[in-house]
Task: inverse folding
């Protein structure tokens, strides 16, 4: 691991320089320019915006006359405003945009959404376009999607998807295609793609086996790299795997991503590696009884590098630069707004005269053809033609996997 110098800056105003353990994590815009979180402690919580694309990171507190509740959800937009979702009166959720106005905080109220059931409306990850924001309510029989910021007339319902959905991964750079993990009735969980410009039209995305639970965790539109969690290789026990959107090779489940007594969750993929999925850096959060730390890995590598988390890391938050530097937001008493940089170490090549050792943990589902082949980058094709299975296409008129 190579550690870059930690960048710091004092926060604006007279905000106290104290260590903050926010009740919720840090959300980062798709372009990595801004982030937002709940800061403060106890009953004195407020929104805080981080600016990450300047020469030094800095935080701006956005307090209002009333403190925020611990369950308030925040989402940064590409113009520096922060979307706030508050739950009031049980099913009702209100939305506002916060922004700094000199010494104070401006608030633009957008409207409210009445959830159809007792559950909570959940904000989806920041849209790649940086303008729109979406929320999802997952009912037992159907899931409703709302555009809650970026529309012309306040919050509006944009789609209703049959089945109970979770997750939420953007598949393109425009904010049109959204992947959700859907369960229909008592069936398995399957990732599907939802076209938000066609009224929520659904097409299959992952179908590793007929009965496996196949969830999409992360996707990178530039390279086509997909990070997947599935129980296909070991029914009843989920494994972390990877595949390439548009490839006919099977999903791989590397042994190096499987740890005893620790949960491994990917949270960021290096962008800009066009059609080069094997070279993408992947950041993983590792959680165990001893705490949380960082995993660094590339699909082309034979191991996951485990690195101690920098002091004050807001666990699970981070973004890659196209050049391959992982920037991790940190907050401590001494450095309330900071970024720590990590890079993936280069792995030594095979010794002269010796064959390279087989890549560790490149298994796919039992019986898959080509399990020993190196994955290749394929040009992305329409989602319904790109199931990540070991089945080869029967011809141009084949049915989409479902």
Result:
């Amino acid at each position: 691991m190579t550690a870059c110098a930690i960048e710091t800056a004092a926060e604006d105003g007279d905000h106290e320089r104290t260590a903050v353990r926010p009740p919720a994590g840090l959300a980062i815009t798709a372009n990595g320019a801004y982030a937002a979180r709940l800061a403060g402690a106890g009953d004195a919580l407020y929104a805080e915006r981080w600016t990450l694309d300047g020469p030094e990171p800095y935080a701006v507190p956005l307090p209002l006359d009333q403190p925020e509740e611990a369950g308030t959800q925040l989402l940064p937009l590409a113009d520096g405003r922060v979307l706030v979702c508050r739950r009031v009166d049980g099913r009702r959720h209100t939305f506002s945009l916060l922004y700094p106005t000199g010494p104070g905080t401006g608030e633009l109220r957008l409207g409210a959404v009445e959830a159809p059931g007792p559950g909570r409306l959940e904000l989806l990850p920041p849209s790649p376009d940086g303008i729109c924001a979406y929320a999802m309510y997952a009912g037992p029989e159907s899931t409703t999607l709302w555009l809650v910021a970026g529309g012309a007339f306040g919050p509006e319902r944009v789609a209703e998807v049959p089945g109970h959905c979770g997750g939420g991964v953007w598949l393109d750079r425009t904010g049109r295609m959204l992947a959700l993990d859907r369960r229909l009735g008592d069936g398995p969980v399957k990732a599907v793609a939802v076209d938000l410009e066609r009224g929520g039209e659904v097409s299959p995305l992952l179908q590793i086996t007929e009965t496996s639970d196949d969830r999409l965790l992360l996707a990178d539109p530039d390279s086509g790299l997909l990070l997947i969690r599935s129980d296909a290789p070991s029914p009843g026990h989920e494994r972390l795997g990877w595949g390439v959107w548009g490839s006919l090779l099977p999903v791989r489940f590397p042994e190096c991503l499987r740890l005893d007594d620790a949960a491994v969750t990917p949270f960021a993929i290096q962008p800009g590696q066009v059609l080069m999925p094997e070279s993408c850096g992947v950041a993983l959060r590792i959680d165990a009884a001893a705490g949380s730390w960082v995993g660094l890995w590339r699909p082309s590598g034979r191991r996951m590098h485990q690195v101690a988390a920098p002091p004050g890391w807001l666990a699970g938050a981070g973004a890659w630069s196209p050049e391959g530097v992982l920037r991790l937001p940190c907050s401590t008493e001494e450095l309330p707004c900071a970024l720590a940089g990590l890079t993936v170490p280069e792995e030594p090549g095979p010794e002269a005269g010796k064959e390279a050792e087989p890549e560790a943990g490149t298994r796919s589902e039992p019986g898959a053809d080509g399990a020993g082949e190196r994955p290749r980058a394929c040009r992305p094709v329409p989602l319904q033609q790109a199931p990540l299975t070991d089945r080869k296409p029967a011809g141009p008129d084949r049915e989409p996997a479902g």
Summary: Residues 1-24, 352-402 have pLDDT under 50 and may be disordered. The longest strand covers residues 104-114. The CA atoms of residues 76 and 82 lie 4 Å apart. The radius of gyration is 22 Å.
